[in-house]
Automatic annotation (TrEMBL):
Pfam families: Acetyltransf_7 (PF13508). CDD domains: NAT_SF. Gene3D superfamilies: 3.40.630.30. Transmembrane segments: none annotated. This is N-acetyltransferase. It comes from Paracoccus fistulariae. It comes from the Bacteria. Residues 2-146 form the N-acetyltransferase domain.
Amino acid sequence: MYEIRPETHADEYEVEALYDLCFAPGRTALSSYRLRDGVPPVAGLCLLLRDPSGILLAAIRYWPVHVGGNAALLLGPIAVHPTAQGEGLGGMLMRDSLGRASDLGWSRVLLVGDAPYYSRFGFERLDHVQMPPPTNPDRVLGLELRPGAWVDVAGQVTRAASQDASAGLA
Ligand SMILES: CC(C)(COP(=O)(O)OP(=O)(O)OC[C@H]1O[C@@H](n2cnc3c(N)ncnc32)[C@H](O)[C@@H]1OP(=O)(O)O)[C@@H](O)C(=O)NCCC(=O)NCCS
């Protein structure tokens, strides 16, 4: 059984290397990264999984954003090492981190990703929410952690203030 642990500053280099391995080159040029520039990730929601020998297998991060003046979480990146994909680790990190987000009092989550994967966690297309261009609107997905949290929430996703993440990584 793997133990899910919060990411610390000491893990950052390895997590970045895992993301570089799992995503296409130039990932940080994506418009979603402009929402993360200069804003620390959310304390307590950046999590990772290592195998018993300490090799990093999976990681997830979240950032605070605003949508039409409402606070929201931007989920991602999430990545699982290619040798460990399809074993349920991504699902473990998704469910665990979303539970922690709810416990921390967050109401709504959005991400840019493949609906066929994220729908299993309850994510649905957000019709009235626009990520910075160029983003395929079909990939802008949301999840309510509190009933009705996305009702009447619409508009551009914008960068949060740096203090909205509280302390960032430990
Ligand atoms: C996407 C990712 C995080 C999923 O983690 P994982 O540990 O491999 O996933 P799980 O084992 O929890 O779930 C596997 C299931 O998800 C499905 N799945 C994985 N990626 C998918 C995708 N992009 N679209 C649709 N289904 C997908 C698998 O087919 C499998 O389906 P099954 O349960 O019906 O067999 C991982 O594959 C990964 O790191 N991919 C590369 C980076 C990436 O694309 N990150 C997400 C950005 S949107």
